[in-house]
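Table S2 (continued). Query chain:
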Amino acid sequence: MSAGELFTAEEIGRALGKTRFAMRRALVGIAPTGTKLVRGNSADAWSIEALPCELRGEIFAAKERRHYRSVADVIANPPARFELKIPLAEIADDNLAKARKLREALAWSLAKMNDTSMREAEFSERGRADYLRAFGYEISGKQLRRLLERTIARDAGALDWDRLEVYVDDKCGRKNPASSTTPFSQEHAALRDTIAAFKNPAAPTKADRTLLWQRTFDEYGDLIAGGADKRKVRRSIVDFLWHHAPSLAKSTHAMYEAFNAKLKAWEAGEIALLDGRAVSNKERRLILSKDDRLTILAFAKKYGSLSQGWREAVARGALGPELALRYIENPASKSHVPTAIRMALGNDVQLVEDWIHGPRQAKLNGAYIDRLLNFAAGDWMQGDDCTLPVLYYEETANGPRLMRGQFLAMIDVRSQYVLGWVLISAPEDRPSTYNAWHIRNLITTVHDVYGLPRNGFYFENGTWKAKLLTGNTADWTETETGLRAFGTRFIHARLPRAKIIERVFGSLQNYMEGEPGYVGRGWHNDKYERVERTKRFVESGKLSAPAHFYSRDEWVERLTDLVNKFNDERQHGKYCAGLSPRDAYEKNFGIEQVVRLPESARYLLANERKLLKVGRNGVGFRIGREAFTYKSAETGPLQGRSVVVYFNRESPDVLGVKHPESGEVFAVRRATSVPAFEAESEVLAQAFAENAAHDSHKRALYRAMLPKFSEHFTNLPIFRQTLVDRATADAGRQLEESRQKEREKGCEERKLRESMEEAAGKVGMTVRGEVSERRRKAAVKLANILSQSDEATE
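Corresponding output:
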């Protein structure tokens, strides 16, 4: 094989944008095909076929991306050196200062970009921290990647990271003409004053340019009349214009050509130095008739686009004769639409597009009312749900299961302060697993810390309203009716823009872009391929889940940090006006106290009301796969009758039952779960402990944001005294007294059983059946008799 078909590691790395050290790692264990003379020295070289599969794949991808004829050309002819359109010496000082800051911010990232031992989240977090330190403000991980890709592409494999040109913005301006030193700084004062009067001297408008040319030839005429040499005057003015108004032409030569052309017009005695193309274009401008306009719009609406609508209208001869003769029927591209038609109808087609989708879409993109903030913090609370863009895992019997989860949150509308939230584990195949109970428990959690809103709740009109009203796990009607008695209103947003909480979700998701397992907000379209590949490997057992994703508990802790970060970070919108949501909540909190329900009425939030029929085995129902059975002496006489029960998932060991005749509320303990076969004492004791502490059906983790306000605000009496009607208070008191009696009774029974088991254990017996004081005394007496008998025998 000839030396011309071999390439050194440096040449391959330059073509692929890799460092020398990255190429050494990639070629470890790959024997060189031969050697090649480089700058007088012999260097190892490889053929394309001898390279590893990964490098060959990158080379083939570069060939397609850069449109090379062959693979060898990719390495033999790397991209040309990047050059700015404006010389570096003429670029504005502020653009150069920004480029230097960017060079400083990306220095570490460029040095570590090929370090495979570093996690992507760690790399992004460090790069964003460097950018914050250099510029004073944060950027997202996506913006950081875009800046790195642009810099690497401009460098074209040269690895010259100190070159300032690769960091300059694409859109940069020239230095201020007034700050440049030219030989004509003391000449052409009238022209200099004219340029200085422009609103933007670096980019003058058409009217500005016309005025400048008129003043230029006024200056030219005055100088010639004064006896100056024409050639020197022309050179002086052209040089002055090039240094002070470079936007008039692309080069010095072009500036001379423009001056000469306008000089001829001026010498010919033309009144103005307007661009003749503008006048000609105005005379030839297309004026669509009303019929042609409506015809084209009708075809565009019918066929879904302006291109297809125009083509169909021309083919069917539906246009007027003047318009039909103006354009050819067989353009080079079948999708071609004349520029004049597209400019005249493009905006109208977009407006019609909204109505094609329906009145709601048109309303969403139409005019809106900008409402005044005439309410205080604590007046309204708003809740909504969001599918988070970060994958986390839960351990299951079949291994770790990755999911994104449903994030339900409640905010104060005036300050956007996050009051509380709930994370519900939602598998990808069942993304919406929350129900009315999750919503109500979120309201309960927020109420216990912040009370009820003075005015009411602002919920989504779709999913939340449906789940509250039709959810089969809770009777929301009584809850809403009870809360309305305290002045609480319930409003459902009709349009997405009415949901202030969506902005909060957007800010929280911005924080999540650098987290491990981030899959994008529209993960079906964003396609984070590395994360998707890692997800498949974890689910197949090839990779460890903790090494690449958060566990559920870790993600909850991280979410807590992110929510606190949002609450403590300054927001510059209309609602916070430069304050953090926490400070805005404190500052804008109204003078009127809020309501916090007393314990006698808290069951309106905490309990689910059900209408059940008492069967032969008591009161029974199921939630998911778990069965709940309650029975006692009080339920026996009620067999066959329907009763109202109150079930509290926070304390499922006791069920409140309302007597159908007297209306008295009494408590019934949950039936003990016993194994199918003989249950040992240890098993029974474990069953009692699990019944008291375990709540297996609750898969959601709830957090209420603890208030962290100033000492002055914390000590304010923000909760007003609440008056509860006698019936509500009596029902709550009866329920609590009955529950307390049942708990005390259960505690006594457990102590009695433990004492019996201890006495029976001394004589090798097992306690079965129900316990009583008489049986306990008999067991103790028997143990004493046997103990005395053993002593006598000895």
